[in-house]
């Protein structure tokens, strides 16, 4: 629906702004949608730092370390050395039991209670339970599992909420770069969390890992809540020209009955689900086990493993930003078909990840091992430029619901991945880890093939034909 640009707009405090003045201001300052994108990136960085820090902390919690006391190196026992690999797998996977439950409610709440508020609430709640993790862990294994479950439950609303935000704040030809820029914070957060967690754990003890990142999360929540608005028209600092751009192609924000039956029968939706689940299967196994892999395969100590295991996520964050920029450049400037761009991004990402993961199994050189792991995980950023924004192509007004559906299925690997590793990798030997690599490669290739065959990038019939709340759900 076209929106006429008004000749003038009354701003806060009764001032008036002409179009010429607005355009002059527009050229001098950041666009408000870019402010939203930067804060969203920092928000996802906080979220993933709080999610990933346990993969480092659990190494020290269960194995202890060497400490110098009066000039003598002594082994300090871990507080939870009696935890078996399977027990550790349950602790690491407990986050995802909560995460999978709140995806669909998160999409619904983002539409009914405001995506900004839902994203804030999810992040703030995660920060609170991160701060409570040390005392809960000392209360017992069950309380730690409960704390991680609650973190997952609260964090699960964030991705659907962010897609609702972008359905209002991203022009169609900027959707890829804005959404992927925000999502890249997940990987930069992991980059920061891995080595910093190792440093904090080595020098201040494992509880400091949770206290530090929990406090950072609370600080971010304060800035987000004061700065971001649900809708562009609610932002007093937005210029008229940017508001007109965002409203020009905007869908009505009226609430409609979600056509769940047609969504769940849609092959393009299932193509997203399969690609998202395949990508997350490998990613979650690496996220929760890469420090342990490097310790078992290359003999890295905790601090060195924490630093080395952060490098792949820096590369992934870089790839998702540059890939998003490139995809929108090809669509906007070179007029490439959106579906072609989405399919090629997914295919290149999955095939590339598989090749370099296979190369991991061919070497025992620690430098090459880290290099191949880094490139393999990093290429996952290219995949995200294909499937993660595809919800907005299919049905922008239902994008939050579609992200909730795909992220629900894509969380299942987070539940079973650590348990699978715990069941197969009993002795920490290379042949056991190779079995895990072969499983990941097979799933990557299957996910890429299914997305290539069934993906679409056009507005779906069930998205263009709305049914009001008083109608019947199809």
UniProtKB/TrEMBL annotation:
Q: Which organism is it from?
A: Caenorhabditis remanei
| Membrane spanning stretches | 35-59, 90-111, 118-137, 178-198, 204-225, 269-287, 307-327, 339-361, 367-387, 399-421, 433-452
Key words, A-Z? Cell membrane, Cytoplasmic vesicle, Glycoprotein, Lysosome, Membrane, Symport, Synapse, Transmembrane, Transmembrane helix, Transport
Q: Where is the Major facilitator superfamily (MFS) profile domain?
A: 41-460
Q: Which Pfam families match?
A: MFS_1
Q: Which GO terms describe its biological process?
A: carboxylic acid transport; monoatomic anion transport
Q: How the protein sits in the membrane?
A: Multi-pass membrane protein
The record's catalysed reaction(s) read:
N-acetyl-L-aspartyl-L-glutamate(out) = N-acetyl-L-aspartyl-L-glutamate(in); N-acetylneuraminate(in) + H(+)(in) = N-acetylneuraminate(out) + H(+)(out); 2 nitrate(out) + H(+)(out) = 2 nitrate(in) + H(+)(in); L-glutamate(out) = L-glutamate(in)
Record's function text: Receptor for CM101, a polysaccharide produced by group B Streptococcus with antipathoangiogenic properties.
Instruction: Quote the PANTHER family the UniProt record gives.
Output: GH23975P (PTHR11662:SF455), SOLUTE CARRIER FAMILY 17 (PTHR11662)
Name it.
Answer: Sialin
Please tell me where this protein is predominantly located. Answer: membrane
């Amino acid at each position: 629906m076209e929106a006429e640009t008004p000749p003038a707009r009354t701003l806060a405090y009764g001032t008036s702004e002409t179009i010429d003045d607005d355009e002059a201001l527009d050229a001098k300052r950041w666009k408000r949608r870019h402010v939203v994108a930067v804060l969203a990136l920092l928000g996802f960085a906080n979220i993933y730092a709080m999610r990933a820090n346990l993969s480092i902390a659990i190494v020290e919690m269960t194995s202890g370390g060497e400490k110098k006391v009066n000039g003598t190196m002594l082994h300090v026992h871990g507080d939870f050395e009696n935890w078996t690999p399977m027990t550790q797998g349950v602790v690491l996977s407990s986050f995802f039991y909560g995460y999978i439950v709140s995806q669909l409610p998160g999409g619904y709440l983002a539409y009914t209670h405001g995506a900004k508020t839902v994203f804030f609430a999810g992040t703030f709640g995660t920060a609170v339970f991160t701060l409570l993790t040390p005392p809960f862990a000392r209360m017992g294994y069950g309380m730690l599992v409960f704390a991680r479950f609650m973190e997952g439950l609260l964090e699960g609303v964030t991705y659907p909420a962010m897609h609702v935000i972008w359905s209002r704040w991203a022009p169609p030809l900027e959707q890829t770069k804005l959404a992927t820029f925000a999502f890249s914070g997940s990987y930069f957060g992991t980059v920061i969390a891995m080595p910093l967690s190792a440093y904090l754990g080595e020098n201040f003890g494992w509880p400091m890992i949770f206290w530090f990142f929990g406090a950072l999360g609370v600080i971010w929540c304060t800035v987000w809540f004061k700065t971001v608005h649900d809708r562009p028209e609610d932002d007093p600092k937005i210029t008229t020209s940017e508001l007109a751009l965002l409203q020009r192609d905007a869908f009505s924000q009226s609430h409609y009955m979600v056509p769940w039956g047609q969504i769940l029968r849609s092959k393009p939706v299932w193509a997203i689900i399969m690609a998202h689940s395949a990508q997350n299967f490998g990613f979650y196994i690496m996220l929760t086990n890469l420090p342990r892999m490097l310790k078992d395969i290359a003999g890295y100590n905790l601090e060195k493993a924490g630093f080395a295991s952060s490098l792949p996520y820096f590369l992934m964050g870089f790839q998702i930003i540059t890939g998003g920029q490139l995809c929108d450049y090809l669509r906007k400037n070179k007029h490439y078909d959106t579906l072609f761009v989405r399919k090629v991004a997914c295919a290149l990402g999955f095939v590339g990840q598989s090749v370099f993961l296979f190369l991991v199994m061919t070497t025992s050189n620690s430098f090459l091992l880290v290099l191949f792991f880094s490139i393999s995980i990093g290429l996952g950023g290219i995949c995200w430029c294909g499937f993660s924004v595809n919800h907005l192509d299919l049905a922008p007004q239902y994008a939050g619901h579609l992200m909730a559906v795909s992220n629900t299925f894509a969380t299942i690997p987070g539940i079973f991945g650590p348990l699978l590793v715990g069941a197969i990798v009993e002795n920490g030997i290379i042949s056991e880890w190779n079995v895990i690599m072969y499983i990941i490669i097979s799933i990557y290739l299957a996910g890429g093939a299914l997305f290539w065959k069934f993906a679409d990038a056009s507005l779906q019939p069930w998205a263009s034909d709305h049914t009001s709340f008083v109608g019947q759900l199809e």
